[in-house]
Amino acid sequence: MNEYSAIPLFAVSESAAARIAEIATEPGQALRVTVLAGGCSGFQYRFELDANRQPDDVVIAQDGAQVVVDPASLELLAGAELEFTDALMGSYFTVRNPNATSSCGCGTSFAID
User: Fold this and answer.
1) Is 74 inside any structural domain?
2) For the chain: N or C, fewer Cβ within 10 A?
3) What is the total count of domains within the chain?
4) Residues of the domain holding 56
5) Residue 65 near residue 20, CB atoms below 8 Å
6) SS3 64
7) Which residues are registered as beta bridge partners of 84?
8) CA separation, residue 56 to residues 4, 31, 71, 93 (Å)
């Protein structure tokens, strides 16, 4: 148990876990999800494959895949779920975030009031 145990964890859907397992081909590689200041709504999500861990990273394991989140981002992602959509218009990761009060059309930028 760590200091983030009281925070509702960031969940990873089955579709997101399956896609991460497909693309994370290097040993120790995980999908890093970061929340950055910026974007058209105030915050934006960043998704990247990363094999480096920081001492304070939170690792979420789901169906053979790993997602890594830094503590500051985790606070903004508490209770959210990472999804992967494979549609005619494209394939992409997205976050269903109950903390977001608004988001932009691109789906990677959001605001919190």
Assistant:
1) yes
2) N
3) 1
4) 11-111
5) yes
6) coil
7) 93
8) 10, 16, 7, 24
β 43-50/109-111 pair status: antiparallel
Which two three-digit tokens encode residue 14? Answer: 């089955």
Tokens of 66: 């790993």
Encoded amino acid at 36, one letter = L
* Tokens 């503590």 sit on residue: 71
Q: Would you say residue 82 lies in a domain?
A: yes
Q: Which structure tokens are listed for 28?
A: 């120790």
Q: Is residue 4 over pLDDT 60? A: no
Q: Give the angle 62-67-95 at the CA atoms, nearest 5°.
A: 95
Rounded Cα gap, residues 111 and 94, in angstroms: 15
Q: Give the integer Cα–Cα distance in Å for 108 and 110.
A: 7
* Stated pTM of the model: 0.81
Token pair, residue 12, equals 């990873």
